[in-house]
Design goal:
The complex is a heterodimer of chains A (289) and B (762).
Chain A (H helix, E strand, L loop, with lengths): L4 E3 L4 H11 L3 E4 L5 H7 L6 E4 L9 E4 L3 E5 L4 H5 L2 H6 L1 H9 L3 H4 L4 H6 L7 H7 L3 E6 L2 E6 L4 E3 L2 E2 L6 E7 L6 E8 L10 E10 L2 E10 L6 E2 L1 H5 L8 H13 L11 H25 L1
Helix pairs in contact in A: 10-11
Chain B lengths: L21 H6 L14 E7 L5 E7 L1 H5 L3 E6 L11 E3 L2 E3 L1 H8 L4 E2 L5 E7 L2 H10 L1 E6 L6 H5 L22 E9 L2 H7 L2 E9 L11 E6 L5 E5 L4 H12 L6 E5 L15 H11 L3 E4 L2 H7 L6 E9 L5 E13 L6 H7 L8 E10 L13 H19 L3 H8 L18 H9 L2 H4 L7 E10 L4 E9 L5 E5 L7 H13 L6 E5 L16 H28 L6 E4 L2 E4 L7 E2 H4 L10 E9 L5 E12 L4 E12 L6 H20 L30 E6 L21 H13 L10 H21 L1
Parallel strand pairs in B: 1-14, 12-13, 16-17, 20-21, 27-28
Antiparallel strand pairs in B: 1-7, 2-6, 2-8, 3-7, 4-5, 9-17, 10-15, 11-12, 11-14, 15-16, 18-26, 19-20, 19-25, 22-23, 23-24, 26-27
Helix pairs in contact in B: 7-8, 10-11, 11-19, 12-13, 15-16, 18-19
Classes of the chains: A alpha+beta (289), B alpha+beta (762).
């Protein structure tokens, strides 16, 4: 492995300035659970790592019943799964954060890092997309916000331009009678990577669906929103036929590949199965809210 | 738990003392291969082929050599010519030329990860950067990845000099054809009421030991070399390295490090000769350690296979005929364990008519190495699935079917000679009588499967010395690296013979200069064969103790007896003397006492195991959850029952991994796509139930303590047992491994389609 410089700025301005100086040759570094492995394997190459864990804005987790959640990009996953607020208001995102790696890894890994790594199989990204989360980015030219579904542009690549940094994720406050859920399929029971991941958020009006979002991971070059599948549920009762139709529509939104984790055919089938299951879980939770 | 059928009264054997190497391991003091460091030591890295099959047109190392910190680079040009011949080495047959070609590719690369060059530098990072600067020009050839691809007409030939025993001077990828037969199979099938014929395909899998391969080589200017490495056989590393390096065996000393798993995979050499070559070039110690990816790409997994089994039985459940065709992926060089698979595939049963054809086929995959009962798990998956199906056809419980056809003492083995005392039927009965098998399995999509397995076990050569210290304690020195708790067993055998507390015996694994020749730790042979040497060495010490006591008492040796750890003078009222009392008088009665023995162990007792598993299948995803698993195995005599149980559980866990998710996944270019433990899925603790064990003890008449090898046979039944359980859960017969969710789901959907179709037709 070649030599790499390491810097750990404590303010956003410093971070942006360092990132701007090195341009393409620098990468933000958080828990390092992806990038260290990629650098060692030679999958990525970079000259400068800019540790963003010491910047306050990136370490903030705050919830407001009206404004919703501000989740700093560097907040470790373990803090999410141990947070009562997160478990109560965003159980789907919480369970996605709790699935990443092992407990040891969750002490280092962050939801923001999971998103910036740009993997199509990231667990927390579909969970964020289902919740309608937005990414707040700062860079040399100021600030911008991007919906999470537009953040990843291709495997391993994101909308972040050289010099830019993901600061936090903004998640709307949950509406009454709403909730979310995330499920992934893995061949084993632990320490694995999603073959298919599905996140869903639902708002109910009585026994009918008032609002729905469904997002899937590991079934296309980037995590995808299954808008048709979700829209078709509006005004419907979540019975077996509706679940079946939603599963089918979600599966139709996918364009998976054959690889060592599963065949395309398998992923299409599992996308439908998990969509049905995750919607049922989200609905059960929403009824209680 | 069915403990002992051995009536001998043991004091130490059969108890469960704390392992003597335990403290070092739990405190982190145990020194594994990668822990060795020496002043001035350099670090080596290996350049590996990105192609599965290519001609090496040129290798340019000038740029890499110029990188500051780089001290030396070796390629196959630095290796002496090695002979194209077959030699016996431990339990393997070795062709020195092929071994050399595997250490560093000569004119061709034959698999993704094949070593091409090795660099020594002042840091591992510099060595790694230097690899990027070595320029290799390839002419890429089409990869040959499967038995079918390797044997079809016009298939690209991997090794231009390879010839087999049937095709004359024709270049081929088929290295060998083995045939075993008995009786008249046509008549056998004619007598059968039911005949089942199926084809099976299994994926190449890896042993998955936690510790990657490693070596530190130190070459001295006097021509003496020392190698520190993690290995199952220090003497084999010495002889194999000597062949590859063109050095006399006596010029190499191998020091076996603590070993983090081997399962057969550490019975050959990879980095060892490179460390010596680089050390010779640089004059400094050189250390090489593989990454996980290198281990998976370029060490020795076990073959994928294609096996066709046709078996017939009469209505009353008697097996009457078997016709078997099997071909194994040897990897880049000949030498798969297909012959072992062929000899084991129906070994648990008496079948009067059989014909077994077995083929060893080279493909563009790493050269396979031994893996726990090599070649037999694949074979048993095929035969034990067909036997399950025949039992079902006959309407007989699968355990009863096995008991009805199972081999007993006197039954002919596949090669003809009769079995001596064996415990196959007892393992079946132990399962049949187990609480697990008697329990009722309820719930949807759940099923219970059973299967059995056979493994030869090995004997071979071992040496041992037992030193009695001046305080009456002892050390027992062997040349067997301890991969399964054998130090505990060796100490216990010594303690048993000498009547000492086990804590008074210190077991040592010595280097190749410090103990007589000892073959590899493999074939479940250590407790059996090295244990035999230890027993004899302790007996030798006992004889000397008797002589010394006789001298002290001024008696003849035959007037002294040793029993219960005490020396007794026959007849008159001389008080007995302990070893502790005698030890201080060694110096004045003839010097130190060292018991010695070297054996070429005969009397190997084969091993049998029978396994039952309960599974639950998710019919919407094809995912299999193990609910319960029990294994019964014949140990002959369990020296340390906990380590016997550990072997049974370990083999079963590996078998379950093999069944469910493990596979070498190559893309169309022959590139391994899952060379890490994320995508090469061995089971985690959350994927396995507690594996229950039943030790059967049918004493091996060929061993002074009744021991049979216990390290391997438990891996043989689980793949078939899981397949049979899946069948009972969801009605599909899986004929390929891994039975991973995509494959099982596909089979379930096909089966569902077929049943819906037939229901519609009704």
């Amino acid at each position: 492995m070649h030599a790499i410089t390491y810097e750990a700025p404590t303010t956003l301005d410093q971070a942006v300035s360092i990132l701007k100086t090195h341009g393409e040759n620098a990468r933000p570094f958080c828990g390092g659970t992806d990038i260290i492995i990629q650098l060692r394997a030679g999958v990525r190459r970079t000259e400068h790592l800019v540790d963003v864990k010491k910047i306050k804005e990136l370490q903030t987790l705050s919830f407001d019943a009206k404004k919703g959640l501000r989740l700093g990009a560097a907040v470790p996953c373990i803090e999410i799964s141990e947070s009562d607020v997160m478990r109560r208001h965003y159980p789907g995102l919480t369970e996605a954060a709790h699935l990443i790696g092992s407990l040891q890894i969750q002490n280092r890994a962050s939801v923001g890092g999971n998103l910036c790594n740009g993997s199509p199989a990231a667990d927390t990204t579909p969970a964020l997309m289902a919740l309608g989360a937005r990414a707040r980015i700062v860079g040399p030219n100021g600030e911008r916000e991007v919906p999470v579904e537009a953040f990843v542009v291709s495997p391993g690549r994101t909308v972040l331009k050289p010099g830019e940094l993901l600061v936090e994720l903004l998640v709307p406050a949950p509406a009454p009678h709403s909730s979310d859920a995330y499920l992934r399929f893995i061949p084993r029971n632990e320490m694995d990577i999603a073959v298919v991941g599905v996140g869903a958020a639902l708002t109910l009006d009585g026994d009918k669906v008032k609002a729905a979002r469904i997002a899937l991971g590991a079934v296309a070059p980037t995590p995808i929103l299954a808008s048709k599948a979700a829209d078709a549920l509006i005004g419907m009762k979540l019975d077996a036929a509706a679940l079946e139709a939603a599963g089918r529509a979600a599966s139709e939104a996918c364009s998976p590949i054959d690889d060592m984790r599963g065949t395309a055919e398998f992923r299409l089938h599992i996308a439908a199965v998990l969509t049905r299951r995750v919607l049922s879980i989200a609905a059960e939770r929403a009824k209680k809210n | 738990m069915a403990e002992s059928t051995t009536t001998r009264d043991f004091k130490v054997i059969g108890t469960r003392p704390i392992r003597p190497d335990g403290v070092d391991k739990v405190t982190g003091r145990a020194k594994f291969g990668a822990d060795y460091a020496f002043p001035g030591m350099l670090h080596g890295k290996v350049l590996r082929s990105p192609h599965a099959h290519a001609i090496i047109k040129s290798i340019k190392i000038d740029k890499a050599l110029k990188l500051p910190g780089v001290k030396a680079i070796v390629t196959s040009k630095d290796l002496p010519a090695a002979e194209n011949k077959l030699e016996q080495s431990g339990e393997m047959t070795v062709n020195p030329m092929h071994l050399s070609m595997n250490i560093l590719a000569h004119d061709k690369v034959l698999y993704d990860g094949h070593a091409i060059a090795a660099v020594a530098a002042t840091s591992p990072h510099i060595a790694e950067e230097a690899l990027r600067l070595i320029e290799v020009e390839y002419e890429v050839l089409p990869p040959v990845m499967t038995v079918d691809a390797a044997t079809k007409p016009g298939a690209p030939i991997l090794l231009k000099d390879l010839r087999n025993n049937e095709e004359g001077d024709k270049p081929t990828n088929v290295a060998q054809h083995y045939q075993f037969k008995r009786g008249d199979i046509a008549a056998g099938f004619k007598a059968a009421d039911y005949v089942i014929e199926r084809e099976f395909n299994t994926a190449m899998v890896h042993q998955g030991y936690i510790e990657p391969h490693n070596a530190v080589g130190i070459y001295n200017s006097d021509g003496q070399a020392t190698i520190y490495c993690s290995t199952q056989g220090a003497f084999d590393v010495r002889s194999l390295s000597a062949q590859v390096l063109g050095m006399p065996v006596g010029k190499i000393k191998v020091v076996p490090a603590e070993i983090g798993g081997g399962f057969g995979g550490k019975t050959t050499i990879y980095l060892e000769p490179l460390s010596v070559l680089l050390s010779k070039k640089t004059g400094a110690p050189v250390k090489l350690v593989m990454s996980r990816s290198e281990v998976l790409r370029a060490s020795g997994p076990t073959p994928g296979s294609k096996i066709k089994v046709k078996m017939g039985a009469t209505k009353d459940g008697k097996l009457v005929a078997a016709e078997i065709w099997m071909a194994y992926q040897a990897g880049a060089f000949p030498g798969s364990p297909v012959a072992a698979g062929a000899l084991c595939i129906i070994a648990p049963y008496t079948i009067e008519n059989f014909l077994i054809d077995a083929y060893d086929v080279v493909v563009n995959r790493p050269k396979t190495a031994a893996y726990r009962a090599p070649g037999t798990t694949q074979a048993a998956f095929a035969s034990e699935t067909v036997i399950d199906e025949l039992a079902e056809k006959c309407g007989i419980d699968p355990i009863d079917f096995r008991i009805k056809n199972g081999v007993k003492e006197g039954a002919p083995q596949v090669l003809g000679p009769p079995f001596k005392r064996i415990g196959f039927i007892q393992t079946c009965e132990a399962i049949k009588n187990s609480e697990h098998y008697k329990s009722k399995l309820t719930g949807k999509f759940r099923g219970r499967g059973v299967a059995s397995g056979f493994w030869f076990n090995a004997g071979m050569q071992s040496s041992a010395t037992v030193n009695i210290h001046t305080d009456g304690t002892a050390s027992v020195v062997t040349g067997s690296p301890d991969i399964g708790g054998s130090r505990a067993s060796m100490a216990m055998i010594t303690a048993e013979v000498l009547g000492l507390p086990v804590t008074d015996v210190r077991p040592i694994t010595a280097d190749t200069d410090s103990i007589g020749h000892t073959d590899v730790t493999a074939g479940s042979r250590v407790t059996f064969a090295t244990g035999m040497a230890v027993y004899e060495a302790a007996k030798d010490a006992e004889r000397q103790l008797i002589e010394r006591a006789a001298k002290v008492w001024e008696k003849k040796p035959d007037e002294v007896e040793f029993r219960g750890g005490m020396l007794h003078a026959k007849g008159n009222g001389v008080p007995p003397m302990s070893i502790k009392q005698l030890a201080p008088r060694f110096a004045r009665t003839g010097g130190p006492i060292t018991g010695r023995a070297s054996v070429n162990a005969r009397g190997v007792g084969p091993g049998f195991a029978t396994t039952v598993v309960d599974v639950e299948v998710d019919p919407d995803t094809g995912k299999v959850q193990l609910l319960r698993c029990t294994v019964a195995q014949d140990a002959g005599k369990a020296i340390h029952p906990s380590y016997v149980e550990g072997q049974m559980q370990g083999g079963t866990a590996q078998g379950i991994g093999w069944a469910l998710n493990e596979e070498y996944f190559y893309d169309d270019n022959g590139t391994l796509r899952n060379s890490g433990f994320l995508d090469y899925r061995i089971p985690t603790c959350l994927d396995l139930p507690m594996i229950e064990t039943i030790i059967v003890e049918e004493a091996n008449p060929g061993h002074p303590l009744g021991v049979r090898g216990v390290g391997e046979v438990s891996i043989v039944p689980p793949v078939a047992a899981v397949a049979n359980a899946i069948y009972r859960a969801v009605g599909v017969r899986m004929t390929q491994t891994p039975m991973s969710p995509p494959k099982l789901l596909k089979a379930i959907l096909k089966h569902r389609g077929a049943t819906q179709h037939s229901a519609a037709a009704d």
